[in-house]
From TrEMBL:
Superkingdom of the organism of origin: Eukaryota
Domain TRAF-type: 109-160
TRAF-type Zn finger ranges: 109-160
Species per Swiss-Prot/TrEMBL record: Paramecium sonneborni
Annotated protein name in UniProt: TRAF-type domain-containing protein
Keywords annotated in UniProt: Metal-binding, Zinc, Zinc-finger
Lineage: Eukaryota, Sar, Alveolata, Ciliophora, Intramacronucleata
Amino acid sequence: MNPIDTRQILNWDQVKVHLQPNLCIECQLVPQQPLQCYRCQKLLCQTCHGDLKQKSRGPKIFCQKCKALNYFNPANNAIYQSYRDMVIGCVNRRYGCKVTLDYKKYQKHVEECDFQRIPCPSPGCFVTTLKRAKGDHLSVCEYVIETCQYCNKQFNRKSMTYHQEKCNGKDAQQIDLASLKSDFLRLRSKLDAAISQFEQSTEITMLEQKVIKQQLEIQQLKNNINQ
């Protein structure tokens, strides 16, 4: 976790008396999850602790206050109490974030902040953009990986146009498309013939019904005359 720059503390003048003794003894910033020297009780931030531990190559770390190798353990509650009155501006304030937070909520916000700058996830692209603008960048990024619709191979967007012009899968799909069109026209022809036959069959049935009806009317007339 990166420490908090004192310039981000909007009420620094009001809280500096309590905070200054509890800054990281290396970088003089406000540590998150501070570590405390077991002997002199001075603090290290996680970043400086990691750097010093790498240099010492052992469990003990050189303390600037004690001038000796000591163990550093998680800070006690009194340290956290000294941080509670801080009003902190987001580290992404220069990019447009106007959120202010207390110490307890600061880290969670920074991890989720839409104004943080993030690298493009596309291989080969070195652009960094605001998290909130990631979608806009990816919509135009030449290094976004896409799948060829003809052969299912993957290329970045920059190479895809050239690939599709030469892709063998494209010719195969065009052959398949021509075959499908031919099958469609053949089936459509059969369908039109069937519809025509059905219509003719319907007309014949209607004529037959008319003839039967006229025969019945003629027979009825004959019966009436004979009476």
